[in-house]
Structures are given as C-alpha cells and as structure tokens.
Amino acid sequence: MGKLLTILVVAGILSAFYFYVPVPKDLENPWIFRLTNCLKRIIHSIMYYEAKYSDVSSGVFANRLQFPMPENNNNSLTVTTTEFDGVRVILFQPNLPTTKDQLLPAIVYFHGGGFVSGNPEIMFGVTRRMCVELQAVVASVDYRLAPKHKFPTAFEDSLKATKWLLTNAKKYSVDARKVAIAGDSAGGLLSAAVSQFIKDDLNVPNLLFQALIYPTAQQIDVNLPSTQQYHAIFGNRGIVCKHDMAMFIGLYAFGEFRQDYYDAFMTGTLTSREFRETSELMQYIDHDVILKSGVRSRHYVKPTSQTDNSKLWHDLKDVLLDVRMSPLLRKDMTGLPPAWIATCEYDPIRDDGILYAHRLKNDGVRVSLKNYEKGFHGAWMSEFNLVVYNEMMTDFMVFAKEYIKPK
Predict the structure, then answer these.
(1) Is 45 considered catalytic here?
(2) pLDDT tens for residues 256-291?
(3) Within its chain, how far is the Cα of 186 from the centroid?
(4) Is 185 noted as a catalytic residue in this protein?
(5) Cβ contacts of residue 115 below 8 Å, gap of 6+?
C-alpha cells in the first residue's frame, strides 16, 4: 500500500508539473493548449536528455513518433504515397472530370516540427482541405529529419521535391505556372527559403505564391519582443519555449546537442559584439519594426550590449547566417512570389513572420499579414477545430483563390 501511495503521489506531481501552465485570459481554449503542452513537454523532455547524454547520430525519440496515414473517407479526392526525385510525398489529387489539356493548380506543403519531428500525415486534415476546397493537387513533403539528417538536408529535400513537380507538372495534370508553396513553423522557413531559390533558378517558373504559417525566419536574435513576451508569460513551458527552440535549431544546425550553443541561445549571446555593432544584416532584425507594427509587446526590455561571444560566433556564423537557415537575411527580396503570412500572439517566433513580411513589402512584394490575437503556436491543426484555426484557414482560402481559381 505504501509503494502504491508513493507511486500515485509521484505520478500526481509529475502530471501537475507537465500539465499545469499559466495561460492568459484571451488565449483560445486553454485546455487544448494545456493538453498539447503536456504531451509536448513529455516528448521534449525525453528528447532533451536523449540528445544531451546519448549518441543521436541515428536519430532521436521524436523522429520515431511517426503518425499513421488517416483514412481517406472523401470520395472527391485520391490520396497516394509516391516520391518526387527520391523524396517521399503524400499526393492529394482532386477527382475532377479533366480533359487532356486541362491542367490544375498545385500546392507543395511542408509540415512543422522543429526539423526533428512530424511527418505529412500529421497535417492530413489541412492538406486534404486545401485539395478539396481549392480543387488543387497538393504534395505534402516528407523531408528527412535532424539530427540524423542535419542542415541543410531538410531544405535540400524540400527544394528537390518542389523542382520535381515544377519540371514534371503535366505528369500530374498540373499547370507549372500555378504551383504555390506553403508550410507551418519549420515548414514556413522551408517555404520561404525554397521560394527564394526557385525565384533565382531560371530553369523553372516562379512560384504562384508562398503561404507562411507562424514561420521561423532567422536564428541569430533570440531576444525579440515576442520571445520576451512568451517567456514572461509561460517561462520554459508552453508548446514551444526558448528551451525547445535552442534544442531543435541546434540539432538541425549541427546534427548533435551542443552545450555551448544551447547556453548561448538561452542567454541570448549567440553573436559577437562586432557583428551586432557593424553588420548590415542587423538592420533586418530591427525591434522597432515590431514595436511600431501594432502587435502587443508586453514585458519588452530593450536588449543592451551583450557578452562578446566572438569565439563561438566564429564557429556558428556560417550556418546561422546561411539564407537556407535564415531566409530573413537575404539582401534582395525583389521578385519573390506574393505572400500570405499568419502569426499568432502567443508564439515566441511571432516576430519572425512580421519582420519577414516587412522585408517583402519594402522590396515591392505583395504581402497579406495578419496576427491572430487569440492564437498560439500549434493552432494550425484541423483536429483541434479551434475558432482561430478556422479563421486562419478561411483567410488563407480567400488569398489562395485570388491566384489559383480561373477567372
């Protein structure tokens, strides 16, 4: 009886630790947030200790959490698994009475998961809805995950799959001039980076548009107003906290857990003083853009001159400044496809999307940007059926139909 009581007490304490998290009053459905947070906190804790204390060259626990393919009970589309240039994709094709010369629009989709978890199956509800409502072919890409496949593998897989569809479009009854790209979180970064490389490739047509759902867009400033706000409210809890970001980006960037990188990320001291004071790239991460944008920046404290981390920065900079890792740092955004960018108020990377939208607008790219004030990172999931998800999806559909529906 004593052992059982001890087990129950320990289990209760652990459950309370993982489940309880303070939430703002205006956050939509706090119980969904808490449940998601609880599950992710358990997974992320296992992954942290696994990454820190064991050999992760063959992958981590999160890589093995592969969601099964949901049953397709919709007769208006066909779902198959195939490969685009060696990259696995789930292909959604609308069942339409098409003629030989009638070609359809298409969307290439990249799931989120911090580059270390997830697969196309987890976004099945989202991508299926895109296919049905837009009557478009949707290719959901299963790029390889870190740490086994470190940077730039996820980007390379995503680019290969996109170029394959553009160059083999007619095989899938797709109009190569009407191929768009979309992704959430890490998939948003991949979408932005792939859009840039497709634009620069004269052998393929430019993409129709890019849809970026709470994207991460840079990896050098971890003291943005949204990061400070999120940390002040949730601490090192919440669905994606500072601890998680340090772990995910580190595993993707280096293929291993690096304590020096993790510590510098947590203390906001990734860069050297010389870089912060002299690099022209720092203009692209201007906190004043956020403060003047109209979004809330509670608990914001202007960063002061930080510790000079020159030695570590010299080791990190080639990866972190690479536009495949930080698309926000591309110098010229001219000619990139129109963008629909969604950010959420309770998201530490909210400001990455706002800064990216600002850069695009300044270089003449059409941008539709909206911050969903009751939303949180992870709300873009059809299974939750949140009001904010449906609002985001409705807004996306309005934007997408402007470009892919025949006039």
Answers:
(1) no
(2) 999 999 999 999 999 999 999 999 999 999 999 999
(3) 3
(4) yes
(5) 145, 146, 151, 154, 186, 248, 249, 251, 252
